[in-house]
């Protein structure tokens, strides 16, 4: 399959109602260790790569939240693919750089 973009905002319910940021940081570590191109934004992180690989990263992020003791988790995901060319963060944002 062609290159895809997947954006994810992960919203864990923390075990004792503590701040979610340290948990989100752990989720972003999963992305960093996946070896895919990514960009962290203020409300979501966008990854670029093969769709199946990116969805696996999303799965691993959710598993990590459970391992950290979160009783539940919401993942808001956007997927972008193109039939005529590779999906690219750079192409989509070039006019703003």
TrEMBL record:
InterPro entries, sorted: MTH1187/YkoF-like, Thiamine_BP, UPF0045_domain
Ranges where the Thiamine-binding protein domain occurs: 6-96
Domain of life of the native organism: Bacteria
Family as reported in the entry's similarity comment: Belongs to the UPF0045 family.
Protein name per its UniProtKB record: MTH1187 family thiamine-binding protein
Organism: Gracilibacillus marinus
């Amino acid at each position: 399959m062609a290159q895809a973009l997947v954006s994810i905002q992960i919203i864990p319910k923390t075990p004792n109602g503590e701040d979610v940021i340290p948990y989100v940081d752990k989720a972003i570590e999963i992305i960093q260790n996946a070896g895919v191109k990514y960009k962290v934004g203020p409300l979501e992180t966008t990854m670029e790569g093969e769709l199946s690989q990116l969805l696996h990263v999303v799965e691993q992020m959710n598993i990590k939240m459970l391992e950290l003791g979160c009783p539940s988790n919401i993942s808001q995901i956007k997927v972008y693919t193109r039939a005529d060319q590779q999906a690219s963060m750079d192409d989509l944002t070039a006019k703003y750089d």
